[in-house]
Structure formats: C-alpha cells, structure tokens
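Hi everyone,

Forwarding the result from last night's run.
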Amino acid sequence: MRASSVDQIIIETLSKEHAHLTSAQVYEKIRERLPAVNLSTVYRALERLVTSGSVSVSDMGTGSAVYEILADGRHHHLVCQKCGQVLTIEDNEVRELFSKIQENNHFHVLTNHLILFGICAACQKDS
C-alpha cells in the first residue's frame, strides 16, 4: 500500500466529511476503502498531511486531537465550554492578531488553526 494513496484517501475523506475527526475516526472511515490499512499507517499519513499544510490538527477540548482539511483556507474556532457548540471564525479576523504578535515579539507564528474556549451567547443568557 503506497503512502500517497493513503494520504489521498484521507484527504478525500476529510473533504467529504466537513468535520473534525479523530485519528481513530479517520481510520474507521478509510478502512471501508482500504481494508488492509492499519492504525499506525493512518497516524503517519496524518502527520505527513499536517506537516505539508494540507490538514490541521487541533485540540478542541474533547480529549483527542482532531483533524480537518485546509482546502477551504485557514479558519479558526470558538468552542463553548458549557454546551460544546463550535463556531467558525474567518482567518482575516485572526490574521491581524498574529501579525501584531509576530511584530511585537520578533516571532514567526506557525499556528494554522486557533481554538479559543469560552461561553457562547445562549449559555451566557442561561447563567
């Protein structure tokens, strides 16, 4: 089994799902197409895809890292710590912050997927 075929099937799966998937979820989804694939192959492929910038890996507060395709460009998330709602924010809302941090600290930011935790509007009303 060639690494490039595993990588391609993972990209297709993440593109189709439009969701944040754990490595175990990716493994389960691609086993339908590649029954001989093993979990360690999926881990290595996900690492390659993250390194190449095709896929982002994030901690959404669920206890497991999740993977998402970056084909639609960079974006970021707000995660409600009460109800678990995930809101997407556009990269342009964060880009200026990253630029200021880089300029003020002479530091090149490599983060491609920012996750901010807080309380959503609905949960704030319920408090």
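The longest helix spans residues 3-17.

Cheers,
N.
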